[in-house]
């Protein structure tokens, strides 16, 4: 008879500790945009990141459903700077989607000329599990010339590359959250292949 209340009290205590820890962890977390970048404040203090200091941004936006009913969306934008610092912007921030979109736009505008120059000079650029150059697309040890690509389809967060005369199966697939600088990848692929 006494065991059930003790178990309930223990669970309530653990939930309380977890809530307190989350409140402490998020207490001083904030971010703000400015013309050439964004400022980020956490327990380590205030840091400023200019768009030209960003090496890569990953985005993971997931819509959640329960029994077929939409219950919410989680947003995670992971920023890696040129000095390998990692900053995670997620739903702890108010209006994180607006913040994330601004970071994506600012970093894409800053990085785009570099990627175009690399591809035009014949170099291969890497986007997580996929890579491309002016000749074609690559994944692992596989390669496919642009002329052999039927289409690149992006649907529900999945990128699938189909090969001409490749039947029903995709030549390769990857998820958008795996692709750093997704919008740059998208624009570069669009210069060489059909995107659906």
Order of helices and strands: HEEEEEEHEEEEEEEH
Assign a percent range to the helix content. Answer: 25-40%
Mean pLDDT: 87
Using the CA coordinates, give the radius of gyration: 22 Å
Q: How many DSSP E strands? A: 13
Strand order of the largest sheet: 7-8-9-10
Structural class: alpha+beta
Strand content: 35-45%
Task: Please give a structural write-up.
This protein has 196 residues and is an alpha+beta fold. It has helices at residues 3-26, 96-120, 182-192; strands at residues 30-34, 37-42, 45-50, 54-66, 69-81, 86-90, 125-127, 130-132, 136-139, 142-145, 149-155, 158-163, 172-175. The strands form four sheets. It has a four-stranded antiparallel β-sheet. It is globular. The termini are far apart. Mean pLDDT is 87; it is low at 19-27.
């Amino acid at each position: 008879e006494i065991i059930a209340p003790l178990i309930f009290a223990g669970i309530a205590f653990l939930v309380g500790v977890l809530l307190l820890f989350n409140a402490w962890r998020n207490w001083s977390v904030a971010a703000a945009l400015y013309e050439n970048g964004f400022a980020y404040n956490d327990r380590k203090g205030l840091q400023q990141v200019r768009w030209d200091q960003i090496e890569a941004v990953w985005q993971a936006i997931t819509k959640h459903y329960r029994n077929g009913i939409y219950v919410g969306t989680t947003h995670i934008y992971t920023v890696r700077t040129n000095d390998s610092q990692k900053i995670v912007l997620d739903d702890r921030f108010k209006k994180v989607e607006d913040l994330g979109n601004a970071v994506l736009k600012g970093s894409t505008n800053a990085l785009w000329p570099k990627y175009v120059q690399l591809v035009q000079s014949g170099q291969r650029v890497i986007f997580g599990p996929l890579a491309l150059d002016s000749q074609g697309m690559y994944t692992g040890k596989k390669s496919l010339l642009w002329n052999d690509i039927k289409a690149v389809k992006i649907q529900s967060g999945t990128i699938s590359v189909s090969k001409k005369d490749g039947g029903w199966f995709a030549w390769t697939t990857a998820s958008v959250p795996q692709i750093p600088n997704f919008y740059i990848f998208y624009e570069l692929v669009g210069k060489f292949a059909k995107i659906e």
